Amino acid sequence: MRHIFCAVLLLVAGIFPAQAEDKTIYLTSLSWPPYSDPQMAEQGASVAVAKAAFAAMGYTLMVDFYPWSRAVHLAKDQSSKYAGYFPEYYSDDIAAEFAFSEAMGSGPLGFVQAAAKPVSWSSLDDLKAFQVGVVKDYVNTADFDAMVASGQLKVSEVISDKNNIQKAAFGRIDLAVIDKNVLEYSVKTDPDLVKLKDKISFNDKLLENKKLFICFKNNKQAMADIFNEGLTKIDAAKIQADYLAGLK
């Protein structure tokens, strides 16, 4: 009987740590303030939303930050501990490799430009006359990216939004794709960009108000379902809005 009791104790001891570990979700992200950044309160607005949604379902979210391409690669790696990555814009190509969550937030996507040389445009065809900056491996809009892929738009690739802000400020490009909140936060907080604040502006016309998602591995649909249910238990839009308002 004593041996049986000890065996039961060992079995129980083995089960509970595994159950506790199963309640922790690992995702990758990038430094993309104010939506995601390891140095920000709650690690950014999108991370705050994600953590709240998982917490509503009894899960803890842990986020590790990497350069964007690396973050996506690690999330795609079937042998990694990561269930996915975020925040991401929707694209059909990505949807072929990942399971998209329900929308967890949104952001105004448009262009940064030189304040002294604002650009007027009404359709993407108008942009053919301009040199446009993009960030490598970022999704923009479906139509914009299709025109880039077909060579209809002249684009210059860089590795970060910061590079594009600097290039626009000094007139090296006419426009660069960027989220308005990212631009405003960057020129307020980055010492290299604060001094350029009066040299740049956000173009009057938006490309699109983009929804933000978590991309889960295709074999992690159950985690996506948990997250989606968690979203129904919180006010994600208010969490993001309150977070951004607190930065003003």
Description:
Belongs to the bacterial solute-binding protein 3 family. Residues 1-20 form the signal peptide. With 248 residues, the chain is α/β, with parallel strands linked by helices. The protein folds into two domains: 24-106 and 210-245, Periplasmic binding protein-like II (D-Maltodextrin-Binding Protein, domain 2); 108-209, D-Maltodextrin-Binding Protein, domain 2 (3-Layer(aba) Sandwich), CATH 3.40.190.10. It is 40% helix and 23% strand. The protein contains ten helices and ten strands. Strands 1, 2, 3, 4, 5, 6, 7, 8, 9 and 10 form a ten-stranded mixed beta sheet that branches. α2 packs across α9 (221-232).
Quick gist of this model?
This protein has 248 residues and is of the alpha/beta class.
Instruction: Please provide the count of β strands.
Output: 10
CATH architecture identity of the largest domain: 3-Layer(aba) Sandwich
Largest sheet: 10 strands, mixed
Shape, principal axes of CA atoms: globular
Number of helices: 10
N-C termini distance: 67 Å
The name of the CATH topology of the largest domain is: D-Maltodextrin-Binding Protein, domain 2
How many structural domains can be distinguished in the coordinates? 2
- The average pLDDT score comes to 93
Strand content: 15-25%
Radius of gyration: 21 Å
- Helical content stands at 25-40%
What class, by secondary structure content? alpha/beta
Uncertain ranges = 1-13, 15-20
Family: Belongs to the bacterial solute-binding protein 3 family.
Protein name: Transporter substrate-binding domain-containing protein
Signal peptide: 1-20
Organism: Thalassolituus pacificus
